[in-house]
Design goal:
The complex is a heterodimer. By secondary structure, chain A is an alpha/beta fold. Chain A has 16 helices and eleven strands. In chain A, about 40% of the residues lie in helices and about 15% in strands. The N and C termini of chain A lie close together (about 10 Å). Chain B has a domain of about 35 residues: Histone, subunit A, CATH 1.10.20. Chain B is about 35% helix and about 5% strand. The chains are: A alpha/beta, B mainly alpha.
Chain lengths: ~475, ~100
């Protein structure tokens, strides 16, 4: 079996057994990136020299009997994570020239565990998008069909893992940016509880919703990586001090007696029929393994997307005010005065979608509109959160589709922002309520992957991973690779 | 159209964004569609609901008031478009 075809867990075993070195593995994957990335555009920066040096260090550490949980294992980072000495663009012209002076905590922890970083992946600009088409560096192509979007905003991370250019990737999720691309590329996307993984050094979009997670090829791989990334961080004021369980050990949890909640509205007319059939089939597999299905009600579900499109832009307008053309980032040439410097630097540095979101946020926070929009949205957010809390009194997890349809064509949804926003209809609720959630491959529709969405109560990462892992013991959807990237 | 050109010009100024002439019409159209879309929130039953402040109802943690960071000015300013003697350069603000 070629090295690139192996999962993170298999590669870890191979390195430990001495079947191959990290240097051999890293060289093989770098070669694969160089051969395929012109087609996919999944990378903004390939870190060849740094990766080879890290692989050598990992091999030396192993020879001395040292090395962390991910020693010598290659990964890629979404280009939203600051990496010291390496360009960190966030998919924007604004940061095209930004070299981070420090590492994000996520980067630091993965480095300390011995991971080998192959490069930084393409993404929607400032993580604002569901198709990767808002990236300043051009859209990423879906390895399952190059005419289609891999989803977004973590499209580069998802495409890189799906095309076997890297066994695993970091990603971030504000409204579905890990889970939606995972569903559209047949990968496993995991978004932890808000506060589980440090946001320090992760460029902020909407601070009360953003959470870092993983894109991998199996639930076991997600457990392996999350165990390294999770945990309290003094440097993130929203990080929560909550014990990190052994996620890998937790994978063997049985599904016997597991209560799965099904939301009727998730299977309404908005859902593509074949996608719905694939998800129902997955639910029956879980049933056959001892789980029971119960219908649950989320009465305010329809308000999730509009609530999100008030809260997230409001926070983004505030967060992105730091880009002023003075301290870092793009600066307009020959400004007339300070105001002209601000306005033109920002007007030139940000793309159309980012400008729309900043302006939406500015509007809903402005005098006279604050109560009607922002305050009202924060109230509705409480209702949505209460709906989940009540539902979790009766069930252990909620399961359904991750997306309404399989991957759509590039260019298909760029004319109407609302059509694009509605792609995240099933995923946004988990962000509003701060809940852990994941997407796992559960079928194919006309050659395109379908994702099963699982949401759990706060801190139930271990249970979600166990459900997906047990499902993956009986199914092989997650092992399927796109034809041209086997 | 729920937003007109004057409103969008005002919002753009509040947000310190210069919109190019060729992106202005599209911005008015798309922002209006977004505002129309989020308008449906006004129908939600929010009487007596306390606005949500944090997904896990946590309060902001405070740290000890102690010096933790070294002065790293020169390294931090490597990303600045224009600096001189440790100062950020901007167009003249005071005559």
């Amino acid at each position: 079996m070629d090295l690139h075809a192996k999962t993170l867990t298999e590669l870890k075993a191979g390195l430990e057994a001495g079947d191959f070195s990290s240097l051999e593995l890293t060289e093989a994957l770098l070669g694969r990136i160089e051969a395929n990335d012109e087609t996919l555009n999944a990378f903004i920066t390939v870190m060849r020299d740094q990766a080879l040096a890290a692989a050598r260090r990992a091999d030396e550490a192993r020879a001395k009997g040292n090395g962390g949980a991910l020693n010598g294992l290659p990964i890629v980072h979404k280009d939203i994570f600051c990496t010291q000495g390496i360009k960190t663009t966030c998919g924007s012209k604004m940061l095209d020239n930004f070299v981070s002076p420090y590492d994000a905590t996520v980067v630091e922890r993965l480095d300390a565990a011995g991971a080998v970083v192959l490069g930084k992946t393409n993404m929607d600009e400032f993580a604002m998008g569901s198709s990767n088409e808002t990236s300043y560096f051009g859209p990423v192509k879906n390895p399952w069909d190059l005419a289609r979007s891999p989803g977004g905003s973590s499209g580069g991370s998802a495409a890189a893992v799906a095309a076997r250019l890297s066994p695993a990737a970091t990603a971030t999720d504000t409204g579905g940016s890990i889970r939606q691309p995972a569903a559209l590329t047949n990968t496993v996307g995991f978004k932890p509880t808000y506060g589980r993984v440090s946001r320090y050094g992760m460029i902020a979009f909407a601070s009360s919703l953003d959470q870092a997670g993983t894109i991998t090829r199996s639930a076991a791989d997600a457990a392996l990586m999350l165990g390294v990334m999770a945990g309290f961080d003094e440097r993130d004021s929203t990080s929560i001090d909550h014990a990190v369980p052994d996620y890998v050990a937790g994978l063997e949890g049985s599904l016997q007696g597991l209560r799965i909640g099904i939301v009727r509205q998730h299977f309404d007319a908005g859902l593509d029929e074949k996608t719905g059939a694939a998800v129902r089939e997955a639910l029956s597999v879980l049933e056959s393994k001892g789980a029971s299905l119960t219908e649950v009600d989320l009465p305010n579900l329809d308000y999730c997307v509009p609530t999100y499109y008030v809260v997230a832009p409001a926070e983004c307008s505030s967060n992105l005010s730091r880009f002023d053309g003075v301290r870092f980032g793009h600066r307009a040439e020959d400004p007339e005065d300070l105001l002209d410097l601000y306005c033109r630097s920002r007007g030139e540095g940000f793309g159309a979608e980012v400008k729309r979101r900043i302006m939406t946020g500015t509007y809903v926070l402005s005098a006279g509109y604050y109560d009607a929009y922002y305050l009202q949205a924060q109230k509705v957010r409480q209702l949505i959160s209460d709906d989940f809390r009540k539902a979790f009194e009766d069930v252990d997890v909620i399961a359904g589709p991750t997306t309404p349809t399989p991957a759509f064509k590039l260019g298909d949804k760029t004319d109407d922002p609302i059509t694009m926003y509605l792609n995240d209809i099933y995923t946004i609720g988990a962000n509003l309520a701060g809940l852990p959630a994941m997407s796992a491959p559960c079928g194919m529709v006309d050659g395109l992957p379908v994702g099963l969405h699982l949401v759990g109560p706060h801190w139930s990462e271990d249970r979600l991973l166990a459900v997906a892992h047990q499902y993956q013991q009986d199914t092989d959807w997650h092992t399927l690779a796109p034809e041209d990237f086997q | 159209m729920s937003l007109d050109k004057d409103q969008v010009t005002h919002i753009a100024m509040l947000a310190r964004l210069r919109l190019a002439d060729d992106e202005f019409a599209e911005t008015v159209d798309k922002l209006s569609r977004i505002v129309d879309f989020v308008d449906q929130l006004s129908a939600a039953p929010t009487e007596d609901v306390v606005p949500m402040a944090h997904p896990l109802n946590q309060s902001q943690r405070l740290r000890a008031d102690a010096v933790t960071e070294p002065n790293d000015r020169d390294r931090m300013q490597e990303n600045a478009p224009a600096v001189s003697e440790g100062l950020y350069l901007v167009p003249k603000v005071i005559e």
